[in-house]
Structure formats: structure tokens, C-alpha cells
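Customer ticket, subject: "Can you confirm the structure for Type II inositol 3,4-bisphosphate 4-phosphatase-like?"

Message body: Hello, I'm evaluating your service for our small team and ran a test protein. I'd like someone to confirm that this is what the system normally returns, since I don't have a reference to compare against.
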Amino acid sequence: NCLALFLSQRSFLGFASFSIRDLLRVKEPHVSLMLCAQVSKVYRFKTEDQRWLLVREQMSETPLSFSLPKQLLSLLTQEHTNRYEVKELGDLSPHWDGLRHDVVSHCNHVTGCYQELLAELEKVSASSCFKSSTSKSDRHLQFVPTNLHTQRMEVTSPDSVWYDVITFGAPADHHQAFKHGGLKKLLRKHTNLRESVTLKHNIVGCCRLISIISTLSGLALLRWSSGSQRSCSPRLDTKKSDVSSYFVVHQTEQFVHALKEELVKCALLEIHNQCIANANSSHVHSNGLLCENCPADQEQDGGRHDTEYDDEEWDRVWVNVGKSINCIVAMVDRLQQQEEQTVMSPEPQEGDTNSQNTGDGKSRLRVLIQTSHLLPLVVTLRDCVREAVGKAQVAMTFVVLQEAVDVTVAQGPAHIAQRRHAVFSQALSAVVCGVMLKLYRGLEDPDFLRQLHTVGVLAQFESLLSTHGDEIGMLEDMEVGVADLKRVVFTITEAKTEQPDDLLPTLNGTWGSFIVEVPLPPETFSSLPQELKDGLLIRVDPVLFNIGINQHQSYAERFGDCSLQERINQQSCEQGCLIANSETMTELNFLLLLSAGIQSLADLLSSLERSIEAKKRKNVEVLWIAAKVCRKVNGVRLTSCKSAKDRTAMSVTLEQCALLRERHTLSQQHFSTALDWMRRCTPSELPQCLAPKAPRRHLYPVAFLLVTSHLLVLWLILSLVILLAKYQ
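Agent reply: Thanks for trying us out. I re-ran your input and got the following:
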């Protein structure tokens, strides 16, 4: 209030700069934890109805710039370390043994490199939480986003409204540079190295099946053995036997159900295909890794050349297990009925020793008969289970190896994978920062909280890169990095304490399935909807729009190629329309979620489509409409250029003034003045901006030297005359 009164007593349009630690401390405990080095500027602008707007512009760094890359490096290091298990596969064919050697070598290289980078980041993050644009090519800062800031604007007239934009340098690997293009081009070159058809996204399922099959097979055989012995006991405990049989049947049903997984059948088919592909090479079958009906073996065994895969063979294997179980269950039931009938028969008298001995003999004879009936069935079941387990484990082991090969070899050299990880790390840090700011601002908005667990959050990346020179590679990197964010989800957890370290986000999972956990204090967490408290995953839908605006884009539009930019914008527009028109979004009733009606959003999407199809030069209207759509659906705005300096500053300040004009009735005659004040200088450069500047030296004669040789002669004559006059 004192600050507002101070500004209202001034008749000029201007700004004041303060440190957040002094007057303008943010009264948001959650937000302040993820911001650092905060600086603010305060303005007073006049509206159309002659009122005053109090505008506060705040720029902050964030500790997430280093926190998330360090966590990502740790997870990637652990993931590559886990792939060392392929060493334990035993003897393989020469082909697969060579691939295994490549996998181990790749994992050793990546693990050592990432451990080194992590150690360097630990040293740097101890004294800083920011990566400047001059360090964007540093190897040890490869995973850290460049010039990451939160740009926030608070408007008070009379209520307080916040507008947030995340600014950062385009996520790209400047260390490896762009001599051979960006990620999109590099990945396209390696499409001839095929990806596995069985398992790329099912490696977790493979490990799960291996564990289930091994555990259940052992338990099933153990319980059947013990169960059969108890069933053959002359003094049978019916209740214990029923319980034991129930667990045996239940576990065996789980075992059979695991064997029926389509993943096992696909893996066996893949093994068969690999055998055919490697038929001309030598084969080693020490552990059965290659298929039994290998063409090379068929030629040796009898000249058979039938290379068709019998997909019913595996079905017969697990069906035999089920039939064996049914036979044993039926036999046990029959023996139990006979046991009950025997127990109901009259028992011999105690004094009759001969009768008692005769009864014991009959019991022993009955045990032998029951054992003779059950033992062959149990042995048959054991053989069937062992056959099924052997085939299933071989299939899953092959798939694990193939997945490791696909990730480490078939996707290209190690430097491409490292480039992709670095680009993803930069994009992840920025989007997590934006999502957390949006979450903290919407904790008291029930409509936004409902949107989180039903629809998710839209993350709109605004890029100002040109399609000329190295910036083409940067845009290709950014396209892949933004697309990889589709596999990232968020979840809200309850913090253990309210200490700052316990309220920072944590990253879990593996490549392709990361989960970001956002902790909240217990009091805040308890007020969330039940769905969010239960750990429901929050989806993030990233879209990228790019419009080059500098002089290099002019060259590209006249003499180069803009197809990359056009394709990116078209795909993002289609994706945005799908998200907005989804059934889930429609069920939510837009009238509750959006500041305008559903028709207004539809009009904006139609305008966006028309603007993209128009293909105008430097069509910045695409970016303006995309930003409006993002704000209407409570999305996260992220703006970037090469280093997040000049072009990004121009875009953000123009957007802020446009918001003041459209939503807060900023006077049109003061629009340009307000824009000039915002662009005058950053708060850190304020003393230099206000200080008197030295007069510029005009060197116009030097410019004329490039025009013509006659002017050069004239300039030399005049300079000689001036020099002589000066010394006289």
C-alpha cells in the first residue's frame, strides 16, 4: 500500500526497481522455495478509464536448473548399470555374443561419462543455480538448461492477477554442435537400424514375467509335493489339505496365466525369425537361446527346410500344464473321497491286537496305492512345468538382450543417445518449473485441480529460432526434446517435512517412463481432491510452435527452406485440436474451466489453423493465437530462442503489454510507452541504463571506403588537409 501510494503521487509514467528481499517479497511460501535471485520492477500505467494499473514484473532463477539434471543423470547411470545383467546369460551364438559385447561396452562408456558429468554438476551447483548463455557449449553443463528464468507479471487493479512465462534457451546440445544436423536428422539417418518388434516398451513386463514364472513354478512344485504327501497320509487333516490345495491351484493358475501372455509368444516368434536371419552363421545352443527348429540344425538333422513357425507349439506347452493340474486335482479329490469312506468304516477294538495290526497294514498299503497313483501325475506336471519355464525364460532373456541391443546399438552411436538425453534434460527442467508454478497458483482453484486429474496440463513451447544455419539443428533438437516430454507424468505427494529440500520435486522411473513427484506440505496436501491424494498421474501434453523472426529467417524464406517450421506448426496445431476436442475435455464442461466459452476456444483454434495454412512470412500471428489458446486452457507457457535473450525478451514484453491492453484496459496511447519502459533494460542493468552514456564516435568516412575507389581518394585528400591544418 505504501508503494502504491508512492507511485500514485507521481504524474509521470515510469518504473521503480527493488530487490525481492526488501519490499516486494512474494507472499507465496511454495513459490519462493523454487525461485532464487529474484529481481522485480514496478510500473504505474494509466487505463482507458483514467485509472492506474500497478504492475510488478518479476524475474527469477530456479534451483531446478541443476536439481533435475542431476537426478536424471543418476537414473540414467543406474539404468545402464542394470543392463550389465546380460553378462549372466551364459554362452550365446557368435552373433548375439558380439552384440552383448557391444552392449556392455556401450554401458561402460555411458556410465563412466554420466558419473563424471554428475560429479562436475555437484561441484558447480554448490555455488550457483544458473547457467549463462556464454556457458551453453560447456561439456560439463551439457544437461543444464541455458538461461532458465521465470518471468512473472502481477497486475493489481484492484485484484491481483499473475501471468507466468518460462524463458530459456532452446533445448539443444551446443557442445556437440550442429555440423551434422540436429537430433531429428541424426535419428532419421539410423532408421535402417530397425527396432525390436517385440519389446521396446515391454521390458518391464519381461522382468515381471521372469520373476513370476520362476517363483510360481518353484512354489507350485513344492506345494504339490508336500500336498501329495499329506494327501497320502493315513491320518489326513481335511482342512489343512483343502487350504493347501487352494493355494496350490491358485498359484498354478497364476503360473498358467503368466505363460499365456502374448509377450512370450511374440518373443518366441522373434527368436525363430532371428534364427532364420542368421541361418548361414554358426550356432551355439548351450542354453537354448536360439530356437529348436533352426534351419541350420534342420539341414544337419535330416535336410528338412520347413522354416515356418508353428505358433500353436507354445500353446500346447502351457495347455499341457493345465491338463496335468486338472488330472492331479481330480485324482486328489478321488483319493480324499476314498479316505473319507475308510475313516467312516468301524475301527478295530483296542484289545484286538491282530485286528490293529491288520488295520495298520491296510493303511500302509493304501498309502502305497495312493502314492503310486499320484506320483506319475506329479512327475508329468513337473516335466511340463520345467519345459514351459525353460521356454519362457529363454524367450524373456532373449527379449531383455534384444531390448538392450535396441537401446544401445540399434538407435545409433552413443553420442546420439547422449545428445538426446541432454536435450531432454533441458526441456524437462523448464517444463517442471512451469507446471509447479501453475500448480502452486491453482491450489485454491477447484476447477483447475479437477482439470489436473481429468485432462492434464498443456505445455506450449514458443520457439523463435530461424530455419537457417545452425539454428536448423537447434530446432531439430528441440522438436525431439519436446516430443520426449509426452512420456513424462506428474504426481502429487505429501512431503515428509516442510524443509526446503523436502519440497523440491523428485524424478523417478526409467527412460521413456519418468514420473515427477511434486511434494506439498501436509496441510496443503490434505485439501486436495481425493483423486490427487491417491496418486493419480497428471499428464502433460507438450506442443511446439516456431516462427523465425530475425534477419536469418528472411534469408531462409527467400532463398532457403522453411518446410521444417511448417511441418512442426502443422503437427502441433493438429495435436492441440485433438486435445481440446477430446471426450474428457468435453465432459468437464468448458464453462467451468475457461475464462471464455467453448465457442471462443473453437474460434481460436480455427483462426490458428487458417493462420498456419496461410504460410505468410514471419507470421507471428501463429504465436499470438497459440499463446491465447494456452492461457484459456490453463496451460504452461514457455518461450525460447537461441540463448533466451534478445528475441525472447522482445516476445515476452510484447505479450505482457498485450495482456495489459486486452485484459486490463491499458490505454492505447500508453501502449508503446509501456513497451519501451519494459524493454529499456533488465533490473540488473538498471544502473548502466540510467547512467549518462559517452558520446558515440561517428566513423562514417570508413563506411564510404566500401562504396567506391573515388571516395577513397577523396577521403585521403581531405584527411591530409585536416592533418596539415591541425599541426599548423
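A couple of notes from the result: Residues 350 and 356 are 7 Å apart (CA to CA). Residues 57-199+413-679 form one domain. Feel free to reply with more questions.
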